[in-house]
């Protein structure tokens, strides 16, 4: 198909292929075409075109261009010295899209780790909190990397593929690859690869994410369990699309070769998504209550205090941190928990939280709210001292109201009977 131009946009038409592990071809799903008056999706019959599948497990070919050139060309884009898009000069609009439309975020600066080898499932099963042995190809989960005493390092979003497990972790957690390599023993058939430079990573956030997926003829993923993912091909390059993203079990994630990323980015924007920069993403993280390394996830707090229940298996065998986690649950030993705090003024992370003049916790993150006069934070507070709706003091003179946040509200701790 020839490249088609319009008055304001140059589009590289791209075709999606559904990858079937037990077949030697990929079924074409959709291609994008554009005229001067309209843009539409044209469906193709699977019986007419058959192309060899490109499983994502293959390494992408050498890249001769930079996605940053494409994303930075988006209106309003401002790039940091580290090559991260900080803003598209539309932060309020992007946040509004999260609640009323759909936003697309380039998280290619996040770490991506490929774990392969015959022992990869058992290895990750032993090194993190999730039960990898119960997952099949095409499924996924969240899992937490912890210290032997269950102190938090980072939470990873994992996809179980045919020949590897993909881990998406925070940009400040590049040391996880080094940590995992230290636990590979002589006879272990495990290989750890940092594939951040070989891949790009986008997420879709907002209530109209499902509609956008339908428009891209990817509706089969809508309504599937969190972590479900499928492989496709765009311009002959591999793309994996998964349910949920690193901040919510709703929305979608796209992991792809940089050679396909430019076309994917342009197409998502052309379907009405609003681009979001890293500044607005960090604000959204705090508003949603997603804990982050070096802020809420540190050596000061354990995984249960961080409230990451959905990423913890209470039934699997021995793993790093299990003894501490089991003891905390058995003896109801979790003394503090992470809360959202609606603030009367901006406060510095690290500020002491008090009730009646008594220290009960510490603020870990702070941002402005959706309205100009609002401020919002995250902080750890002792369990016995507050409940939702209570008033606290942050620092010397800032009033806060304790509130629940969406990410933590979606976590499902065990009942007393189920954990006994």
Automatic annotation (TrEMBL):
This is Putative aminomethyltransferase. One of its GO terms (molecular function) is methyltransferase activity. The keyword Methyltransferase applies. Its EC number is 2.1.2.10. InterPro entries: GcvT/YgfZ/DmdA, GcvT/YgfZ_C, GCVT_N, TrmE/GcvT-like, YgfZ/GCV_T_CS. GO terms for cellular component: chloroplast; mitochondrion. GO terms for biological process: methylation. Keywords: Methyltransferase, Transferase, Transit peptide. The keyword Methyltransferase applies. It is an enzyme of class 2 (transferase). PANTHER family: AMINOMETHYLTRANSFERASE, GLYCINE CLEAVAGE T-PROTEIN FAMILY. Pfam families: GCV_T. It comes from Rosa chinensis (China rose). Residues 93-316 form the GCVT N-terminal domain. It comes from the Eukaryota.
